[in-house]
């Protein structure tokens, strides 16, 4: 059982160690804070992003994830802290000098320009001394259209494309300037579910082929877990946990992360004499090393098994049944004063609303609460 003060991979660094780590990272965020009036959008964020990594910024609305992405890009001036790219302090650099590619949720394509001109825009507006020759720009646009699987549409206009195609063009435009970092703000948020799913696979493939360090904002947990090498969980402007999808799902750093990811139900419980109790009933044995007192237990459907009568650690009443593709999900009430938990059973398991079922409950996501 963990205390609520745990915050994942975040830690205090000595100045010497911080300098070494900054040089070894693609992006280093150090003590970044951002205030809007009297409200703290970011509150002392420390974050290291590895070269070639695909990192997801995940959190509820208002957690600060988009503000952090904009701060990295230079679109949002900082109240405090610094941002480094490959060991270089970029805090004072203009957006155009940071060499980042930014993809917005709503495409931000120029409707009066062709697809080819949109992709080439970042190259054609460079000062003449830095602008590639016209033939090289044309070749680069054709290569990028092939990369994003849209060959031959350079003469079309954004209004002639689907939402998924427009987002691919937006990514091609971001890649055209050969950025050292690619930043995406909810890139699939405006698309329907099936298109989102297809583009998630496509983006992962693009990332593997190009190797760009990529940071993307999402509120979709499935998207973060499926795409990212690591996930940064934000809440109220603070970094709660940084880790792999397995870390986030299976080893949450604190009660907030345990409750936020994985569609978990929270039960306020008491640990005493080696058992976990809630609503006057025993749910099961406490994990080894769990201290006595009040705690929060987080249960997903995968933590609750329906077992043969007499074989469980608790019982409950089935209050609702919903069908999934290859299983059924049961909503089960353990006691009148507790929120219902969920369990998945096979289609061949005979069960009906109102049945009393025996349950075996896994109690690993248990977090101590302050004593009152």
Question: Which regions are unreliable across 5 or more consecutive residues at pLDDT < 50?
Answer: 3-8, 10-23
What is the name of the CATH topology of the largest domain?
Answer: Rossmann fold
Radius of gyration from the alpha-carbon trace, in angstroms = 25 Å
User: What's the number of structural domains?
Assistant: 2
Percentage of residues assigned to helices: 25-40%
Based on secondary structure, the structural category is alpha+beta
The termini sit apart by: 18 Å
Approximately how much beta-strand content do the residues carry? 25-35%
Give me the side-by-side strand order of the main sheet: 6-7-8-3-9-10
The number of distinct helices, counting runs of at least 4 residues, comes to: 9
Number-wise, the strands total 20
Shape descriptor reads elongated
Task: Give the C-level CATH assignment of the largest domain.
Answer: Alpha Beta
What does this entry look like structurally?
With 372 residues, the chain is α+β, with helices and mostly antiparallel strands. It has two domains: 27-253, 3-Layer(aba) Sandwich (Rossmann fold), CATH 3.40.50.300; 263-368, OB fold (Dihydrolipoamide Acetyltransferase, E2P). It has nine helices and 20 strands. The chain has helices at residues 15-23, 65-73, 115-124, 134-147, 163-176, 193-210, 221-227, 245-250, 255-260; strands at residues 27-36, 39-49, 54-58, 80-85, 88-89, 100-103, 181-185, 213-218, 230-235, 238-243, 265-272, 275-278, 281-285, 293-299, 304-307, 314-323, 327-333, 341-346, 356-361, 366-368. Helix 3 (115-124) packs across helix 4 and helix 3 runs parallel beside helix 5. It is elongated and about 80 Å long. The model is unreliable at 3-8 and 10-23 (pLDDT under 50).
């Amino acid at each position: 059982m963990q205390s609520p003060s745990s915050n994942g991979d975040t830690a205090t660094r000595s100045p010497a160690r911080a300098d070494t780590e900054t040089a070894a990272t693609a992006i280093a965020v150090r003590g970044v804070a951002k205030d809007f009036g009297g409200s703290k959008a970011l509150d002392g964020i420390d974050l290291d992003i590895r070269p070639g990594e695909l990192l997801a910024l995940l959190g509820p609305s208002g957690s600060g994830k988009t503000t952090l992405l904009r701060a990295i890009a230079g679109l949002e001036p900082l109240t405090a802290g610094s941002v480094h790219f490959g060991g270089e302090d970029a805090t004072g650099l203009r957006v155009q000098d940071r060499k980042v590619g930014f993809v917005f949720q709503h495409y931000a394509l120029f409707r009066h320009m062709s697809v080819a001109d949109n992709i080439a825009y970042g190259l054609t507006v460079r000062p003449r001394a830095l602008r590639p020759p016209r033939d090289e720009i044309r070749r680069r646009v054709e290569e990028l259209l092939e990369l994003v699987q849209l060959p031959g549409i350079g003469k079309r206009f954004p209004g002639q494309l689907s939402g998924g195609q427009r987002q691919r063009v937006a990514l091609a435009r971001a890649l055209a300037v050969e950025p050292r970092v690619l930043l995406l703000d909810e890139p699939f948020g405006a698309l329907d579910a099936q298109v989102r799913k297809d583009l998630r696979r496509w983006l992962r493939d693009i990332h593997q082929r190009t190797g760009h360090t990529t940071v993307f904002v999402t509120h979709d947990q499935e998207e973060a877990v499926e795409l990212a090498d690591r996930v940064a969980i934000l809440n109220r402007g603070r970094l709660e946990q940084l880790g792999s999808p397995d870390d986030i799902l299976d080893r949450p750093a604190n009660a907030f992360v345990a409750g936020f990811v994985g569609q978990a139900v929270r039960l306020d419980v008491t640990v005493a004499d080696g058992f976990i109790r809630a609503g006057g009933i025993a749910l099961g044995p406490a994990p080894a090393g769990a201290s006595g007192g009040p705690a929060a237990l987080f249960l997903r459907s995968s933590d609750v098994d329906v077992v043969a009568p007499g074989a469980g650690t608790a019982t409950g009443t089935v209050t609702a049944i919903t069908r999934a593709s290859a299983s059924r999900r049961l909503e089960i009430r353990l006691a009148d004063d507790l929120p219902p938990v969920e369990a998945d059973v096979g289609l061949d398991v005979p069960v009906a609303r109102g049945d009393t079922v025996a349950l075996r409950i896994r109690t690993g996501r248990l977090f101590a609460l302050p004593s009152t």
